[in-house]
Design goal:
Oligomer: single chain
Radius of gyration: 42 Å
Structural class: alpha+beta
Shape: flat
Largest sheet: 7 strands, mixed
């Protein structure tokens, strides 16, 4: 449509007949006139607001031009030409009909808001939109117009979307399917941690084993092969590393999932392609009811892509994900909506040198890192930025310091690493803060940042580890540098680790909850239970030594320092230590109560000087009548009894009174001096609070009494300033 030509058409004016009709149209909002223009190719609808017509205004509210391909609306409320592209359904402050409730019939219905001026015009509109109308349309021609406008909107939206999807297709079409070698590597290497040896004891010392990798089953001698649920081991049939599962203790389903990234070269960089691999292992009970009678089910799909370029040597990427485009029902590559959490991934290494040969990542050695850690997920997108910032990370990768490299890459998670890496160092020894010997030890055990910290501390105190000793110490005590520094250890670290390894053989391990096992452990390989047992016992052993020290045991005696049957000794000592703490708590409670009693006596003496002692009632003082008394509690028991009687928390204030942090006074009626009435806290020369039964507020008499007390106290404090005296409070 030619907007310039359409806007030149004279604006319509309402006829006297229309003004007369407007008075008879009740709740309707617009009168519509219709005419065919441009050789009957365009239908022009003019909308006159009924309320405006009633006020004598003859100008139209707006007019809409409709062809068989498009429509557009001109706003006539302004003298300037203003076009609106919304459909009638989407126009502000306009609707064909209202949703109304019929009170008599108790049902709702739609009521038309528009009135066509004449039957001839009504027929003209019906004929124009005949192909969009049906005889069953409840609201006649307006339903047909709505269908037409919706079709135009859909075409407009499709055209707009096509501009975006065409750009995406230009980027995506050159990317070919990943090769078969990649998918084979995913299951054979990347998911190799998800291999299981399922066993069931059939008779003493003999177990029937099934390997999910080689699919072989057979009888195994348990004296020759260690079989413990969830421990790591070697398959007796194919020799692959497996996780051992007791058939009777298996969950119904065991999920293992990882994200894998495959790099493809592009003209200006490369594309990271993210594949989600999922393996499901079923128990025997689940197999009985499952449709697919297979122990292992696998699937892999590509879900996301990141297109990398390097303008001025800096990494820049655009992300896309596979999903429903704009909620239109079509699955295709879409702009990244942030719905797919795939950054923690495993990088396929075999084609990397070719994939980023012409990029700054050419010498990053990340293919070495991913080859050495083929089952470990890390943020390889962060690795690109970290390498640009710290190119010497190449040295760390090529030296086989894989876990240090992973820690550097994933440092955004923790924000803090235990073992410091000096990225400004000129040599690898300056970067790691280690000597040549300790650097080789770190290489030998492929230590992480915690092990780096252990070596750095050991180097400072002159302690030299051997690789196996360092590995065993870390598996037992983690990054415990305090134990390294202890000068009063009763034996060598090696003997301590050996002792814990032996005693922890049947030590309990923490059981993972159902939710944790389902969500977290499916993305992370669980530690070997043998290591978990050692770490649990090591924590308990260090705690046990503290108990023994407080209980006064002679830790120079190895019978106490490294007892046999540690678990039994630990539990017995825990009970002894709890009794010791209970006894200590009782003694401390008595000490606090004595101290509180002493301080309250001092308070009473100070008040005697200020207020004068009341001769009739012990510990009581009168303040300007009001029929009330101020009573100083004589003991901690008095304070507790006050709290119990008035149902408030003053009984917990005994410790504060004992420390001199506050003062507690009782307010009693003169006629009932022994009956709790109100409790007042005096601190820092002010009344902090005064509460009655169940924390109720002060009565007028009590408030006047407390104000008189406060005034008297402040006057006395002011007089004593020059004397340098310290009174109550």
């Amino acid at each position: 449509m030619e907007k310039r030509k359409l806007s030149a058409i004279p604006r319509p004016i309402a006829t006297p007949e229309m003004i007369e009709i407007a008075d008879r149209l009740g709740g309707m909002r617009h009168i519509v006139t219709a005419e065919l223009i441009d050789d009957k190719k365009i239908l022009l609808l003019n909308f006159f607001e009924i309320q405006a017509l009633k006020k004598g205004k003859t100008e139209a509210d707006f007019r809409t031009f409709l062809s068989h391909e498009d429509y557009i609306t001109q706003d006539l409320k302004t003298s300037k030409t203003k076009w609106l592209t919304a459909s009638f359904h989407g126009m502000y402050n306009f609707s064909f009909m209202d949703y109304v409730w019929n009170q008599q019939e108790h049902k709702s219905s739609y009521r038309l808001n528009v009135f066509m001026r004449s039957d001839e015009e009504l027929k003209m509109v019906k004929d124009f939109f005949r192909e969009y109308s049906t005889p069953d349309d409840e609201y006649g021609l307006w339903t047909g117009i709505h269908r037409f406008q919706q079709e135009v909107l859909d075409k407009r939206l499709a055209k707009k979307h096509k501009k975006e999807t065409d750009k995406i297709d230009v980027i995506m079409n050159p990317i070919k399917d990943a090769p078969k070698e990649f998918f084979d590597w995913v299951w054979d290497t990347g998911m190799s941690f998800a291999r299981y040896l399922i066993y069931k004891e059939v008779k003493k010392g003999k177990a029937l084993c099934e390997c999910t990798h080689c699919k072989k089953t057979g009888i195994v001698d348990r004296k020759k092969i260690r079989l413990r649920n969830n421990e790591k081991g070697i398959c007796p049939f194919c020799g692959s590393r497996v996780t051992i599962k007791a058939k009777g203790r298996m969950p119904a389903q065991t999920h293992d999932e990882r994200w894998f990234v495959y790099a493809d070269p592009t003209k200006d960089g490369f594309v990271f392609r993210y594949f989600h691999a999922h393996q499901l292992m079923k128990s025997d009970g689940y197999l009985d009811v499952a449709i697919h009678k297979k122990r292992i089910e696998r699937e892999i799909s590509e879900n996301s892509r990141a297109i990398y370029t390097f303008p001025k040597g800096k990494p820049k990427y655009e992300s896309y994900e596979w999903g429903v485009y704009k909620q239109r029902g079509d699955y295709r590559w879409c702009p990244d909506q942030g719905k797919i959490a795939c950054m923690e991934c495993i990088l396929y290494p075999r084609n990397l040198p070719q994939a980023w040969e012409h990029t700054p990542m050419k010498y990053s050695a990340l293919e070495v890192l991913s080859t050495n850690l083929p089952t470990v997920s890390m943020r390889y997108e962060d690795a690109i930025e970290k390498y640009i910032e710290f190119p010497k990370m190449e040295w760390i990768c090529k030296m086989g310091l894989n876990k240090i490299a992973k820690g550097i890459i994933n440092s955004r998670y923790s924000g803090y690493q235990t073992g410091k890496v000096n990225i400004k160092g000129n040599t690898i020894y300056e970067i790691l803060g280690l000597t040549k010997v300790n650097t080789r030890i770190l290489q030998a055990v492929d230590g992480n940042h915690d092990i780096l910290r252990l070596l750095q501390v050991a180097q400072q105190i002159g302690l030299q580890f051997k690789p196996e000793q360092l590995k065993e110490y870390y598996e037992t005590f983690g990054c415990n540098t305090d134990l390294l520094k202890q000068a009063n250890r009763k034996t060598t670290l090696h003997k301590i680790v050996k002792y814990i390894t032996k005693e922890s053989e049947n030590y309990p391990i923490g059981e993972q909850g159902a939710c944790l096992g389902y969500s977290y452990m499916r993305y992370k390989e669980r530690e070997d239970p043998r290591i978990e047992r050692k770490q649990n016992m090591a924590k308990d052993w260090l705690e046990y030594l503290k108990w023994c020290k407080e209980l006064g045991y002679d830790l120079n005696n190895m019978f106490f320092y490294m007892p046999l049957n540690f678990r039994k000794v630990h539990d017995r000592t825990a009970k002894e230590y709890q009794k010791f703490l209970d006894k200590k708590a009782v003694a401390e409670k008595k000490r606090r109560e004595r101290e509180a009693k002493k301080r309250m006596a001092e308070t009473k003496k100070a008040l005697e000087e200020i207020l004068g002692e009341n001769g009739n009632i012990q510990n009581a003082f009168q303040i300007k009548g009001k029929g009330l008394l101020l009573v100083v509690p004589a003991s901690a028991e008095d304070i507790k009894a006050e709290g119990a009687a008035l149902h408030h928390c003053v009984g917990t204030y005994v410790d504060r009174v004992a420390r001199g942090e506050t003062n507690i006074f009782f307010i009693r009626k003169e006629k009932e001096p022994d009956k709790p009435y109100f409790t007042m806290e005096w601190r820092d020369n002010d009344i902090v609070q005064c509460r009655g039964s169940r924390n109720c507020g002060m009565t007028p008499e009590v408030k006047a009494f407390t104000e008189a007390f406060k005034k008297k106290m402040l006057e006395t404090i002011e007089k004593d300033k020059d004397k340098g005296l310290r009174r109550c409070g």
